[in-house]
Amino acid sequence: MPAHEEMAALYGRENLFTASAAELEKFALTPKDAEALGVVGLPTDSSPFFTTQVEGGPEFLAVFDVTTSKGVDHREVVIGGPPGDPGMRFSLSAYEGFITLIQFDGPRPKGEVVNNNLGEFIEFLYQIRLHETRSADDPAVRDESFRELSSRLRAIDPFSFERPDDWWFMALEFMRG
């Protein structure tokens, strides 16, 4: 996971959200996720894959407490969504720590785990933005940088690339095209 200074250098301090101590207490996150959200920060916009500036509901930082059919308490915190898609949200599972992409279209919400924890999710956004910044003006650099990016992300979280319909697998295919 990048440090706050690295995130600020890449995104700009004004484009990072860090949660307050009161918000972190309310969310009841794992210590690792609390550090990621309270110290490192979450980019407010990392187009084309992520934004905290979601349209419609549920809103950014909405908290949902549910009890599963097995009687287990579960908390979800909305951390953003794909830009321009009001029917999808990224959610942080407060107790388990994984990141889920939830699709609200249809009769019942559907979810897909996209990363094992918030630190990995932030690292993915950071590495993608770093690739975009480094390779913006040179196609030769872009191809090599993309290969390195793909290898790096797969090494961080191989689970996110197991199936061709996984979110990050499709995101990389979009970037390649």
TrEMBL record:
Domain of life: Bacteria
InterPro entries: SUKH-4
Protein name: SUKH-4 family immunity protein
Organism encoding this protein: Nonomuraea purpurea
